[in-house]
Amino acid sequence: MAEKTRLRDVAEAAGVSLSTASLVLSDQGRIAPDTRTRVLEAALKLGYRQKRKKEEERRATGRMDIAILLDIDPEWSIVLTLIRPIIQEFERTVGIAGFNTILIPISRSDSDGQIAEKVRASGAIGVATIHFTSPDLILLLEAAGIPVVIVMNSSHQDRFYTVCVDDFQGAYEGASFLLRSGHHEIGFLECERKGLPILPVDRFFGFKKAMEEFTVPFDEAMHGRLPATEEESATDWIEGYLRAGKGMTALFALDDELAIRVITVASRIGIRVPQDLSIIAPGDMLDYSLCYVPPITTMRIDTTYMGRISAQMMLNRITHNPLELHVLKVKQLLVKRGSVGTPRS
Predict the structure, then answer these.
(1) Strands lying side by side in the sheet with 126-130
(2) Which of the four, 10, 31, 119, 280, has the lowest number of CB atoms within 10 Å?
(3) pLDDT digit string (tens) for 143-190?
(4) What pairing do the DSSP bridges indicate for beta strands 297-301 and 332-335?
């Protein structure tokens, strides 16, 4: 059982001294990165949990807080519309069970130790992290007896409790919709999303799977990768990509934030959507209730449901402390908004 695991057991499993294991698990001292990871991995595998005095005090006062790590870096402002329902439903669900939700602002420039200290100072008994993941941080929190649930990031689903989107299936169904609409010359456009390296991979393979099943060859020249650059340069790059793809009748964009950039450039150079170019993208990162947001056909992510099952997974971890790893994937649903038409003959 996890409560019977001693610090000495962790040290022996990691092949380090007792003092080194203690320093790692208390996030102190200068420890080599590989040694640090080895100790944290051993602690997680053995189910070691440090005693938390503050947690016992909070239980006595009746205040039980669960934290959500919220990335406040400017480049992540694009996801606020998307994740707002996650936070709302998470708070509602844990609230019914008698827990409070607190938001902890973080930046990707923060070290693991700084974020861990913010969590410890808050007294949170559990942490949900949306998009942001750092394996060493999660191992550090888990060793401190603070269960973590990763939301909307599948990069470490083989190691940690995760609620994510089925990006492969969503891309497969989105591409299939384009193919059933009569499109054969389809491009795939991606861009970098920091901290989400698996995202473009899963979506591209889902896209390719649909092309293969429909026996439609994919021209690699239509596989665009928008470089990380200034906005003006990015606009020029997109224009070049669109002009080069003369036979392209449809485009699968990595997400709808990228799709709206394509639509803006396409309009400027006389390419009409969907008459000349159909566009589909997973989402919805954009607020389609706003009059100035163009209607884009998307594979919508049910973020309200994600918030609910993330909260349920967290509550299960806090109350039952299951040892088996759980990963839940949420299906995407097609929402037609008029950006996909039939190709011109």
Answers:
(1) 100-106, 65-71, 126-130, 148-151, 162-165, 327-330
(2) 31
(3) 888 999 999 999 999 889 999 999 999 999 999 999 999 999 999 999
(4) antiparallel
DSSP state of 266: H
pTM here?
Answer: 0.83
1-48 belongs to which CATH class?
A: mainly alpha
d(CA 32, CA 17): 14
DSSP bridge pairs for 298: 281, 335
The enclosing H or E element of 310 equals helix 303-320
Q: Are 318 and 147 in contact (CB under 8 A)?
A: yes
Is domain 54-165+304-332 given the CATH code 3.40.50.2300 in the classification? Answer: yes
Residue 32 in tokens = 């080599």
d(CA 174, CA 99): 38
Q: E strand or H helix at 143, and its extent?
A: helix 135-143
